[in-house]
Amino acid sequence: MRAVLDLILPPRCRICDISTVSEPIVWVCRDCWLDIDYVIPPICYQCGQPFAAPPEGIVSPMHRCGDCLQDPPPYERARAVGFYRGAFRSIIHTMKYQRVYGLVRPLAELLQAQFAYHWGDGMPDALVPVPLHRSRLRQREFDQALGLSHMLSRSFDLPLWADVLARHRNTPSQVGLKEEARRHNVRGAFRVQAPGRCEGKALLLIDDVYTTGATAKECARVLRQAGAARVDVYTLARVE
After folding, report:
1. Enclosing domain of residue 100
2. Total domain count for the chain?
3. Residue pLDDT, tens place only, 132-146
4. What is 149-213 written as a DSSP string?
């Protein structure tokens, strides 16, 4: 079937527009996919921000950055696959805004590939996708965090708690806002709908992009208030 479709309407890379006939991912060519800039150590143990210092100057893998020491986030650890720039940024935008939902699986496979490395020392009790407000969901017709979470849940046989956390207030887009404005924008936007389920649990928040951490911190805060023993964050990409 794909061969017939390729003859009628040859697929092209959504990023650079070259032909993707015979490519494993029809929406993104091999070169663009290989252009993903992965996050590598040394990084802050808590927020996952790479250190500017050379590796020889970092004495411990549990070393935390100045921001986390001064104002510790409510989550335990935040980790991301790659940096939100270049081809990776365009690939994520293609999934979210051009409605190329077929990219969910290969993007989820990036999360799967590093999952054991990041969380193998303590598997979470459940996955919690960062939710969209219902009006934003109607607009996009797709919840990218939920889609990624479904793939991870099936791959590692982990419970998916898609109904525990809700965005009950429709906040303006975070795009273009400074860090303080982002924090104010999402303050009180999330609500735990089943707090009893969170008691004593280790939960892993799933989202597509970690920008300033405002959304992740607010979600972690309300989950910890509901009794979660630990909250971690796992995203496809992070902004430097």
Report:
1. 36-238
2. 2
3. 866 666 666 678 899
4. HHHHHHHHT--B-TTSEEE-S-PPP-TT--HHHHHHHHTT-EEES-HHHHTT-EEEEEEEEESSS
